[in-house]
Amino acid sequence: MNEKLTQKIQNDFDRIALYDKQGWDHNNHYHHFLLKQFPKQCKTVLDIGCGTGEFSRLLAKYADRVVAIDLSPNMIEVAKQRSRQYTNIDFQVADILQWKFPVEQFDAIVSIATVHHLPIENLLPNLKAALKPGGSLVILDLLEHENVQEMLSDFVAVPLNWLLQTIKNRRIQPSSEAAEAMREHLRTDKYLTLSQARRIYTSFLGKAKVRKHLFWRYSVVWKKGNLRQLSPAIM
């Protein structure tokens, strides 16, 4: 990824962080699903692209230590402010492509709505190496339609999205500045199709489970080989 694009992404999220309001969205809708994919014994977790730290705080209730990384200093500052009672989260401002990965140190690695900003083929070998044997890689990211059938399958998501926004976010009024900041960021976003995601992840990881979800998301779950089989759920 070139430096100009990296800087734009950082600037975008520095701006978005200024207007962030905690509420329901297409990412935290899947937090419970993601937690269920983690090993039962989960001492150390890496959260890539942690944003304001919402999922990091959930992880901190189950793991001994959470390393939470984001490119945006403003996002990390908001995350720290909202996470003062969590002493086991290590928030870091860093470019994950430049970050020095430790070898076999994490029981789980998670990333939510971040990997579409990254050259995933370059990142996956580092993620594999950083996981302990038996550890889990869990990814949730945005999805691009590749045919009419997929577009039709998401028709139900449109009214459901409106309903959940109305019910869960009725006390949250997004500002015009927040909407404009997000529109500017989405202008340069690009996403994988489901077939592209399956090809990439199975090529690098082997038996990775790649599945499509409502709200224009897909997930990847992969467990690193181990001599013994770990229990599949954290909850």
Q: Summarize the amount of helix as a percent range.
A: 25-40%
Secondary-structure-based class equals alpha/beta
Q: How large is the radius of gyration?
A: 17 Å
Tell me about the biggest sheet? 8 strands, mixed
Strand content: 15-25%
Structural description of this entry:
With 235 residues, this protein is an alpha/beta fold. 38% of the residues lie in helices and 22% in strands. It has nine helices and eight strands. Strands 1, 2, 3, 4, 5, 6, 7 and 8 form an eight-stranded mixed beta sheet that branches. Helix 1 (3-17) packs parallel to helix 4 (73-82), helix 1 (3-17) packs antiparallel against helix 8 (176-186) and helix 5 (120-130) packs across helix 9. The longest helix is centred in the first third of the chain and has 15 residues, at 3-17. It is globular. The protein starts with a helix and ends in a 12-residue tail after the last strand.
